[in-house]
Amino acid sequence: MEKKSGSTVLKTIVADITTLAMDAIVNAANSSLMGGGGVDGAIHRAGGPEILQECKEIVDKIGRLPTGEAVITTAGRMPSKHVIHTVGPVWHGGRKGEPELLGHCYRNSLQAARKNGLRRIAFPSISTGVYGYPVEEAADVAVRSVIETIQAHPGDFDEILFCGFDAGTERKYARALDVEDL
Known about the structure:
Blueprint: E1 2-5, E2 8-14, E3 24-29, H1 38-47, H2 49-62, E4 70-74, E5 82-87, H3 98-115, E6 120-123, H4 135-152, E7 159-164, H5 167-179
Parallel strand pairs: 2-7, 3-5, 3-6, 6-7
Antiparallel strand pairs: 1-2, 4-5
Helix pairs in contact: 3-4, 4-5
């Protein structure tokens, strides 16, 4: 699925996010920034020790990364230039501010990208793995948050990808993108 909002192209794709050549890929990190399972582990493995070293330096300065916040590192050995690390919320049925926190992940990641002049960004499906956020609900929040951000900052982004690791996830993001008015 592909749509355009102003000059920004928004796409859904099925891919291993670690293989994409973008200005930045987003990591669905844990608050320790030390790697883990899912996307986080894959990014740390593919990027190599430089990412872990930079994450350690960030944690030494700020402590654990709060849910919804974002920080940036280089991408190590991956084809992208940078990794934006954000911590998604754990799903508790939507009653503990999960949609707002997830929206912050996307907005703060794009803010980090803007601050660093990065125009092509790829997002994974944040919080939908071990954190248990239902993919369909997460896709709605993700697409809405990204569109609101790019509309508030027209011309700052060239391309935003919603990268599903499997076709089922990609379809849910495509549906969310399809129903949004741009």
